Amino acid sequence: MDTQNLETAAIKIQSWWRGNTVRRTLLHAALRAWVIQCWWRSMQAKMLEQRRRLALRLYTCQEWAVVKVQAQVRMWQARRRFLQARQAACIIQSHWRWHTSQTRGLIRGRYEVKASRLELDIEILLT
């Protein structure tokens, strides 16, 4: 083989080798980029999940606060109605007791004063 053919063969081998090393370097770079992209997507998914959980936790806290306030208002309203009913019952009872004490029995009587003594005739009628 002459030197011309040897140079051509050497150039072909060198270009093949350079092509392989460049392709291998590009493949490694692409794999590294792919790994980084996968990691970044997983981190984004985790951050999104954390934000979603935080938003859900805040929402549930607000909902519980609303429920507690509503329960307190309902309890206050029920207590107010109870106290009004109790006061009305006390008023009705006091009026009823006064009415029954006034109409329970009729006292009929007469009295006369004669000289030095009091003559008293009382008749109590219970109805």
From TrEMBL:
<dbReference type="InterPro" id="IPR039887">
    <property type="entry name" value="IQCF"/>
</dbReference>
<protein>
    <submittedName>
        <fullName>IQ domain-containing protein F6</fullName>
    </submittedName>
</protein>
<dbReference type="Pfam" id="PF00612">
    <property type="entry name" value="IQ"/>
</dbReference>
<dbReference type="InterPro" id="IPR000048">
    <property type="entry name" value="IQ_motif_EF-hand-BS"/>
</dbReference>
